[in-house]
């Protein structure tokens, strides 16, 4: 990876910041930053700094790093006393000069170019690389007293960039803590993300805040500003490398860090002073979180027997247990237990185990009754099992997982919203899922009551100046109306429209609602009857006053009603229209007349249809209208007032022949009617 131009720019930026801070009078005293010491021998670094125990059986210690012309080293001791750095002291292994590691973070450290400083093949193999450079290696053999080793470390790097470009998101140096037993051919890498086999690197442990993807952010500490105890752009939190080992066997460990791709952007490993521990594994913790706590009344015998041990002392919660000096101890209560194992006067290892006990669960309620909630009152309904779980025990710990099953042997948990399969009554079983072996299944009774009565909503009309009695029906335990104030009687009296809802409850405490939709109504007021006559399709439209409240229907015979207020295809004559309120508030009626002219007349002296005239003009106050009759050539034959007058088919006492004649009617309302009719003899 070639990014030297960017590195130079970053170096210039950090230098500029450093000069600026100096110009502003901001100084960083030594107590704010770590210090380093190159004077420790490799044996001192391992025995006196990293392990710092008289129990250590360490040999074949070696270290290698950069061969700088100035004589500076890429490994040594660091002191963080009085700083915010998590370790008070320890070992530093770097891909550059450790003299560049102390803060402030004011310039870019990228030493080791063009000096033939190689990488490491074991590191390449462990990380799947082929291009490491500038490797610093600390390795030694040891014989463990206990069956577990562990040590703490922090990975710091200049490659934790706060404002990277997208192509820099994969920049990362590599390191590994390689362990193998004497005689084995392959190493195991202990520098991995906890619980995985993923190596810790810049691109596998990174927090949010840049364009680069977040990775295992829980293990990332921070991107550093200038004021930091080290001269690195970022670092992980304190991590722990650990492994099981066999007491008395010889092991080789190789701690190695190197640049990847080229020498630019140094990185470092900080190993916590005194954190390399030999401990005894005396058993897995017994925790509720891992599903294996001790059950109430259960004891656990823990055995810490070690070959060559000269004495034991057991502690509970950091307090020595009187008389507990045997290799075994019988645990009868919860706590953090530790055993000190002595090998002579000055050598000691420890083992620890954490014990929790499953809680004694007290049943609060194990029978749950509800009402069938759907229209099909078949004794089956939906139960909220989450709610039941919260009410089942008086003291259920928040981290206990409870599931429900239809039968004790079932392994398929019921859903949170469960519909019972046995009508009216069913027993299901509650099971504590994450604390195995301490509890039997708890039977839970589900009971379902029903409401079999059928309630039908009603739509009613309320006539003006009247009242209604609403009746919810008898035979129920209680009633509750949505009135203000609430009424609790079977019947209520209402005098205004609205929606009235009553909730009725039966003897099994199940409820239903009935709704009365009350519409204010009243008898109609006929405001006008609009008549369209003297045409092929005579019609009448009945107009109701806008102040009328009701919903109305219309009839011309008082028997057959229609919703429409328009009547069509009406013959000439007298009509009575009836308007009825659908809610029963009453009927009004009014007479109207349809006018039309006869299409023919027969003036033959038989006393029937002997004259041509317009009936009922007077009923419409049109009796003063003027009627004019013409022959086919437009000759005026007769003109007369419509009031009780007619034409007998003569002109100047002469009988006119059978043919068509034309007319005009000038109605007194301003309307003119024209047409023709036939004279038949």
Automatic annotation (TrEMBL):
Coiled coil stretches, renumbered: none
Signal peptide: none
Domain of life: Bacteria
Entry-linked InterPro entries: Choice_anch_L (IPR049804), Ig-like_fold (IPR013783), T9SS_type_B (IPR026341)
Entries under Pfam families matching the protein: CHU_C
Protein name: T9SS type B sorting domain-containing protein
Taxonomic path: Bacteria, Pseudomonadati, Bacteroidota, Flavobacteriia, Flavobacteriales
